[in-house]
């Protein structure tokens, strides 16, 4: 086999892995919607990470044990990563699905790169180009269209659905986690996954206990357990492994572009699985948000 043929085959495999990754991540919102009435959000998050930790220890336990001293040195930072990016993000996302549609949640996730862009500018004074500013404004308009349900009157009155407000918080939490990754310690990815998943499990336990003691607590039934297992195995573990492998095969810049498929796939799955109605305002929001990200991520010819 020639080098060119091998590279082409390698690329095709990477594309398959990355499309599967975005499908599993896009399915997270649909799974969360299916969980409503069958397992409550805090309990779902806690069980998800408890199962994920158990599986990860089997897969990555030896590597984690080998890196245990490094983990202890960086424990506060790793705990913060797991708390924000894994636990609190999913708690707010699953809670939002009690008040808004899976399509809205999928589109809100597309706005996360813009939250990252904003935090980088505020905290690190990252240089902004005109294209990035225009892209940011387009994406903000897109999420405003989603939050208002396409109603100018609701937008003017700032009457935003509570679920959409929760998704704004979820987006900020994940953006904070992503921005904080610039301080990521030099650890094997398996060790990072175990440490962050364990932190997410620990942080989510008090929330789950409080919810269980309240009238809102719902212990999973058969469908609830199916959702728990899906979220623990596919978005939490397999998607992460596939994404890391995809980055290794074709590079982070090309692999990162596939993340923009998450809201598109999530929207399609919400229509096919949940029977949600795709409105004109959803189409407009997707065009604005994804177009804004594309514009913001473009580099001038002299930088490419």
From TrEMBL:
Q: Which UniProt keywords apply?
A: Cell membrane, Membrane, Transmembrane, Transmembrane helix
Which superkingdom does the taxonomy of this entry point to?
Answer: Bacteria
Cellular compartment(s): Cell membrane
Name all EamA domain ranges. 13-146, 162-295
Q: Where does this chain mainly localize?
A: membrane
Membrane spanning stretches: 47-66, 78-97, 103-123, 130-152, 158-179, 191-210, 222-243, 255-274, 280-296
Its protein name is DMT family transporter
Membrane disposition = Multi-pass membrane protein
Q: Which InterPro entries does the record match to this protein?
A: AA-Vitamin_Transporters, EamA_dom, EmrE-like
A UniProt-annotated Pfam family: EamA
For whether the record's keyword set contains Transcription regulation, the answer is no
Origin species, per record, is Roseitalea porphyridii
Q: Which GO terms describe its cellular component?
A: plasma membrane
């Amino acid at each position: 086999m020639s080098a060119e043929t091998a590279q082409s085959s390698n690329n095709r495999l990477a594309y398959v892995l990355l499309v599967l990754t975005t499908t599993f991540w896009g399915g997270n919102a649909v799974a969360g919607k299916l969980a409503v009435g069958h397992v409550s959000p805090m309990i779902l998050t806690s069980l998800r990470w408890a199962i994920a930790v158990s599986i990860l220890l089997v897969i990555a336990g030896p590597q984690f044990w080998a890196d245990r001293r490094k983990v202890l040195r960086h424990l506060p930072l790793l705990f913060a990563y797991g708390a924000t990016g894994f636990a609190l993000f999913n708690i707010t996302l699953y809670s939002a699905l009690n008040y808004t549609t899976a399509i809205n949640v999928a589109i809100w996730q597309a706005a996360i790169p813009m939250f990252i862009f904003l935090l980088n500018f505020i905290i690190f004074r990252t240089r902004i180009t005109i294209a990035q500013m225009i892209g940011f404004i387009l994406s903000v308009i897109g999420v405003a269209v989603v939050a208002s349900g396409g109603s100018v009157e609701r937008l003017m009155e700032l009457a935003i659905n509570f679920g959409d407000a929760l998704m704004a918080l979820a987006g900020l939490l994940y953006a904070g986690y992503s921005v904080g990754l610039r301080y990521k310690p030099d650890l094997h990815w398996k060790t990072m996954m175990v440490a962050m998943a364990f932190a997410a499990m620990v942080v989510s336990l008090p929330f789950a206990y409080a919810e269980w003691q309240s009238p809102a607590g719902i212990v999973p039934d058969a469908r609830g357990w199916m959702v728990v297992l899906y979220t623990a195995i596919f978005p939490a573990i397999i998607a992460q492994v596939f994404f890391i492998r995809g980055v290794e095969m074709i590079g982070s810049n090309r692999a990162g572009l596939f993340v923009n498929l998450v809201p598109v796939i999530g929207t399609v799955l919400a229509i096919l699985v949940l029977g949600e109605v795709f409105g004109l305002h959803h189409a407009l929001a997707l065009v604005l948000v994804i177009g804004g990200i594309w514009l913001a991520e473009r580099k001038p010819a002299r930088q490419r």
